[in-house]
Amino acid sequence: MSLLGSILTYNQSFVEKKAYKPFQTSKFPDQKMVVLTCMDTRLSQLLPHAMNIKNGDAKIIKNAGAVITHPYGSIMRSIIVALYELKAKEVYIVGHHGCGMAGLQAESVLEKAKKHGVSEEALERLLAQGIDVNQFLSGFDKVEDSVKHSANVVRTHPLIPHDVPVHALVICPKTGKLDVVENGYDIVQAAKPSQQ
């Protein structure tokens, strides 16, 4: 049986047994938070448990490295929608140690793409469209700097209010220990005009 076949067989049983009932919740996050984290498989269950996030508590967005590469891309749009339409109040950018995006070089990805049949012509079309493939496919040097950068993209976005706390954290994928790189409450407080 194919992987899809086994998923669909399991799903049929899941629905028939009403195993979905413990997961029912509303579309609004109970803890009023949106989390951008990495798609790393080690974080799938570890991160929610380490942050005490239960089903329905948070909007969780995942991508490679928890990186926001463009202020007007789909990640940023999702964060904006979570804040304005889904009642989230805080943003958490959570990277992790040992991330596959750390030190990733575009050349390595492109080499593998070519081995899988991607042609030189396809790469030339990207260049003709103004895509900087090296920048698009490169990772970061230090995870702490990366989460700070992504938090800053959110914090300084013209559609994000200045009073939204944007936190930058790094999680250990072995133990779940969280390290705060930037405390969004402190940054919001420091940005407030002093009252005299």
From TrEMBL:
Pfam families linked to this entry: Pro_CA
The keyword Lipoprotein appears for this protein: no
Annotated EC: 4.2.1.1
Molecular function terms from GO: carbonate dehydratase activity; zinc ion binding
Annotated binding of Zn(2+), by residue: 38, 40, 96, 99
Catalytic activity: hydrogencarbonate + H(+) = CO2 + H2O
Cofactor: Zn(2+)
Record keywords: Metal-binding, Zinc
Organism domain of life: Bacteria
Cofactor note: Binds 1 zinc ion per subunit.
Signal peptide: none
Cell cycle keyword on record: no
InterPro entries listed in its UniProt record: Carbonic_anhydrase, Carbonic_anhydrase_sf
Family: Belongs to the beta-class carbonic anhydrase family.
The protein, known as: carbonic anhydrase
Organism: Halalkalibacterium halodurans (strain ATCC BAA-125 / DSM 18197 / FERM 7344 / JCM 9153 / C-125)
